[in-house]
Amino acid sequence: MSLPETIFLSDLFRHRARCDRGIDHGPGAFVWMHPPVHRILGWATRPSSFTSERHVWRLNQICAISDEQVYVKGIPSISNVLTLDLLPSLLDAHLLNNNGQKLGLIADFVFNSKTGKILYYLISRSDPRLPGSSRWRLSLDRIVDQHPGRVEVNATVLDELPLSRSSIKQDFLRQTRNFREQFNQFTSLASDKLEGWLDESLSEEKTDLYDSYNYKEDVDSILDWDDNNSDYLGKDKKNNISDRSYKREKYSNIESNEEDPWV
Question: Which is nearest to 116 in space by CA: 207, 182, 191, 42?
Fold first, then answer.
């Protein structure tokens, strides 16, 4: 067993105080602090549920902390609930924003086990006694002003503070938000691919249409061919007639030049 460097006040309250004489003094019930300097001086335990008596311990009386008990040395100071309620404390104080609107309650804080210096506060939006509720971290430099029962911070909404512990509802909302963002990214990517595919299809259709139009023009030109075309047909006839006349004339000359041997 050892003493951790930092302790949650809620963890300290859950542990039962046991002195060096082996007496069980009960769980924690009240924090003794000095709000102006954000420091814890001690805490009080409840030895019995049927009495208003409280045992007050100084912070330097803690020796060690186990899973269920906090071991203290010496004897406590005896007090009661009415007296302790007069001591100043920021626990359960209302957290106000720049406009004076309530953001939540101070439900817990983390402190140094040796010096008692409070490192940061934990804020609850709803009743801090509800199990599983979310906690937002409030650092000391965000505190603008403080009075008994209320603390003013330089923030507009609670979500401006870092989330220290999320509830089931908060986890569900975050997962839903992540799923929505992923779905939007997938939809955008699918739309881009579909637009690219449509552009390629339109380009191919235009090319096919242009090729079919050229082919149709070639076919139409062939189908429109005039067999009685005078230019081409006239030339062919003239050439054929000239060839036949030339052959006939040549043959006649040959026959005329040859002598008949029987004459």
Answer: 42
Contact between 78 and 53 (Cβ < 8 Å)? yes
Residue 135, helix vs strand vs coil = strand
DSSP state of 175: H
User: pLDDT tens digits for 76-133?
Assistant: 999 999 999 999 999 999 999 988 999 999 999 999 999 999 999 999 988 777 777 7
Distant-in-sequence, close-in-space partners of 20: CB < 8 Å, separation ≥ 6: 63, 71, 72, 73, 74
Number of H helices, E strands in the chain: 4, 15
Q: Could you tell me the pTM of the whole model?
A: 0.64
Please give the Cα distance from 8 to 38 (Å, whole number).
Answer: 14
Give the helix ranges, DSSP H, for the chain.
9-14, 81-84, 168-223, 230-257
Sheet holding 62-65, edge to edge: 62-65, 69-72, 16-18, 24-34, 39-45, 53-58, 77-80
